[in-house]
Structures are given as structure tokens and as C-alpha cells.
Design a protein that fits this description.
about 120 residues, alpha+beta, four-stranded antiparallel sheet, 4 strands, about 25% strand, globular
């Protein structure tokens, strides 16, 4: 969870902790969304994992691979960080589809990242 209440769930690709001002984690996202400001419940906006599967995108696919969707997250913007276990999440009722899932109905050409950029203006 970021300080902004954005959420990223994914695989850590790399991390850099050499200098205090540039500490970061590079993540290959599987899900992203936000926490509701009042309830703090997770609202999934983008299901990258589903989109990757629908478009035959893997870590080494061509011409586009999952590495193309990496997110660089500055450590000083992280509020909380934990390892994610899908089985545990399902046991905690996080496995149910969330109300907000903008990645459904995307055109073949639109990745979850394209939708994020459109929403950002």
C-alpha cells in the first residue's frame, strides 16, 4: 500500500537501496487498485494477470513481455509492504472479484497501463 492509498500486487523484479534518496522497488504488477478512503477496503482497478493471459504475455514473450509493464516504486512512498500468498488471500475472502475492475472490456490494443494513463489525464 502506498501513502496515496494506491495498491500494487505483483512480483518484485529488482530493488535499489544504494542511496537514501533513490531507494526503489521495481515491480511487475499482477493487480493494482486503491484502498477506499473510508473503509480502506481494496478496490481492484486493473487485473494485469488476466490481461497478460488474454494477450499471451509472459516474462519472455515477443514483441511485448510482462517486463514492459514494470512499475518503479520509491520506497519513501510505501506505507506498508508484505509478501503476497494467493492461498492466504483467498482464505481471508480477498479472492472474490471486487466491484471496480476497469480491465474488463478493454480493447485488444489497450493494456491496463493505457487505461491508467487515460484516467490520469
Amino acid at each position: 500500500t502506498m501513502k496515496s492509498r494506491r495498491i500494487y500486487i505483483g512480483m518484485i523484479h529488482a530493488s535499489t537501496f544504494e542511496y537514501e534518496s533513490t531507494k526503489n522497488i521495481v515491480l511487475i504488477p499482477m493487480l493494482s487498485g486503491y484502498r477506499d478512503s473510508k473503509t480502506l477496503k481494496l478496490a481492484v482497478e486493473h487485473n494485469y494477470s488476466k490481461w497478460y493471459a488474454e494477450h499471451d504475455i509472459t516474462l519472455d514473450s515477443k514483441p511485448k513481455d510482462a517486463m514492459s509493464f514494470r512499475k518503479v516504486i520509491m520506497v519513501d512512498q510505501i506505507e506498508s509492504l508484505s509478501l503476497f500468498d494467493p492461498a492466504s488471500a483467498a482464505a481471508l475472502s480477498m479472492g472474490h472479484p471486487q466491484e471496480v475492475e476497469k480491465s474488463q472490456g478493454n480493447d485488444d490494443a489497450d493494456s491496463p497501463d493505457d487505461k491508467s494513463r487515460d484516467a490520469a489525464g
